[in-house]
From TrEMBL:
SUPFAM superfamilies: E set domains. It holds the Pfam family E1_DerP2_DerF2. InterPro entries: Ig_E-set (IPR014756), ML_dom (IPR003172). This is Phosphatidylglycerol/phosphatidylinositol transfer protein. It comes from Phanerochaete carnosa (strain HHB-10118-sp). Residues 1-101 form the MD-2-related lipid-recognition domain.
Length: 111
């Protein structure tokens, strides 16, 4: 990822049970051991705001989601760790994802 430019994220996921209104994700972003963001997001509301090709209720099966965002220009040249835990409306585990985003190099790396 390059600060100030578009970043397109493509996600393929398998939904094993219907994702209903009220499903949410707890997101933590860290630089080293320092938390810079800790926030809960409503998954269905975020999907509506992002205008992606999935909505709630999300049916069982494979889903492909593509979303493009413009990154802000002032991003610190650090390596970010992102931890996401998603839950159903009944608080049952739905998904988890760990990402490292490295802005230390000129082009940046996402893995």
């Amino acid at each position: 990822p390059v600060p100030g430019q578009n970043l397109t994220v493509k996600v393929v996921g398998q939904v094993d049970e219907v994702v209903e209104e009220g499903a949410y994700a707890d997101v933590i972003v860290k630089v080293g051991s320092i938390k810079v963001i800790e926030k809960e997001f409503d998954l269905c509301e975020e999907a509506r705001k992002a205008e992606v090709n999935i909505s709630c209720p999300a049916d069982k099966g494979e889903h492909n989601v593509v979303h493009t965002v413009t990154l802000p220009k002032p991003i610190p040249k650090v390596k970010f760790f992102v931890n996401i835990h998603g839950y159903t409306v009944e608080d049952d585990p739905l998904m988890c994802l760990d990402l490292w985003i490295d802005f230390r190099t000129p082009k940046g790396k996402l893995w």
